Amino acid sequence: MTGVISDQDKDIEEKVNRLSEERTVWRNSRCADLSKRSKFNHDQVVHRMIYLLCRGPKYTPHQARQLTAILAKLQNIYTETRVCRGVGFPCYSGEPGLERTVRKSKDAAVLLWAWESWRDSVRIAKPLYMSLISLQNRGAKNNGYKEIGECWREELETPNLKHVVEQLYHDVLPFFTLLHAFVRHKLSSVYGKDLVPLHKPIPAHLLGNLWSQNWDSLIDILLPYEDSKYNLDNKIKALNWTVKSMAKRAEQFYISLGLPPMTKKFWSHSKFDNSGACHGTAANMFAKEDYRIVMCAENSMEDYYVMHHEMGHVQYYMAYSDQPAVFQDGANSGFQEAVGDAIMLAVMSPNHLRRLNLIDDLSSEFEIYLLLLQALNKIPQLGFGLALEKWRWDTMSRDVSSSNYNSHWWILRRQYQGIRPPTFRSEQHFDPAAKFHIADNTPYIRYFLSGFLQMQIFESMCNASGQTELRSLHRCDIYNSKAAGNKLRNMMSTGSSKQWTYVMYDLTSGNETSYSSKSLLNYFKPLIIWLEEQIKKHQIPVNW
Question: How far is CA 425 from the centre of its chain?
């Protein structure tokens, strides 16, 4: 069920619609004028400004209003939908309600209920999504593109993007295959071989995440140490960390690198409390020192990560705030998503976790636990991100018709993640709508690329801090390294004024100009060796 839209909400919606129209009129007028002047020689900076302003879809004011209205309805379905289990049970939003239920429960019946109920409730989004794609394709064609997916891929400024992402995925596929086999083996021992056969894709509802995109909540099943002595959530609670103190600790790490603290307006306007339904988001209000985070947080390691991720966006906003408005963005969207995650890699280094009093054990046993926790969070996400975006590209190009939306979705999820739906799915369902970024119309390949880029950024900061002698990247501790902070600040301060390959060249001191899997595989090398040993020792079947 969904909530009723109030008069106040309707008034806000109308203001957003009018703003969309006015912005469209202004952009169309400016770009039309600039195209007439294109015969004049402009310097490189002006050429890039024009390119960034005028690329992408072009809508008429009426189409812009239509687009805004469709997106509002899609987002309302996602944010206002509640599912109820029955009398005496609470009702849940998708985020954070069902998301947390799935993270915390190990009861197969509860997990199946949550998985099915959410997807059954949001499938009504399908007609709106079809209208959204049709309208966006018209906007793309208005500006000379074949379809909207072409516009989305252009933002990454990687001409052979489809080939690049496939190659990156295949670089890490042997690693993911080992991880998948180990997880399936352990789940089968808990839930039985009838529910989790050892030679088939894993049922999606058992992976500890509402979307099966990261599997880190399974860590205590995979490595069930006595008394959960490594459980970081338990340590956070035992130390009585509050949501506010977690946010302050996240800020402190950035400050230790010589980066600026959050502003007064940030602390007065941001929302961290554990109430309502929301998806963690950072916002640049484009007013002096006005940056905000909205999230429904609790004192958990998952939300500690989200704080660092969203604060990374804010650091990016502050770093490029002196750039012209058109350059106030990341080198591309992948860079925007990678900053906070690169910092979180540093936070998760064994030395820093001990500094935070979250651990007192630096044994090799703990290092494997920590690496497995990180791998469960990051590696399945790569397959998820690629499957989601390939599905969307295929719907945008009309290579897949609306009568095959759901079947194509599960073909890709099986291919790239080795998972399957726990129950029969038909074209009456619309399972992609279970994910926020479908309703929000946010391109997702940025998160896939960020999975590699964050490792490259982290390794670059480690090198800048002088820790080149490390045998494994996961041990790098850059806390208090102003040299590492300068490397990051210099990257962020250029905004989108440079094409991203130049930014990559500067970031890596001339060593790289493209995305690479080398840093990621270096980070996880000890875990890869350990997984190979486990597979051999227990004769665990691999592949799906």
Answer: 26
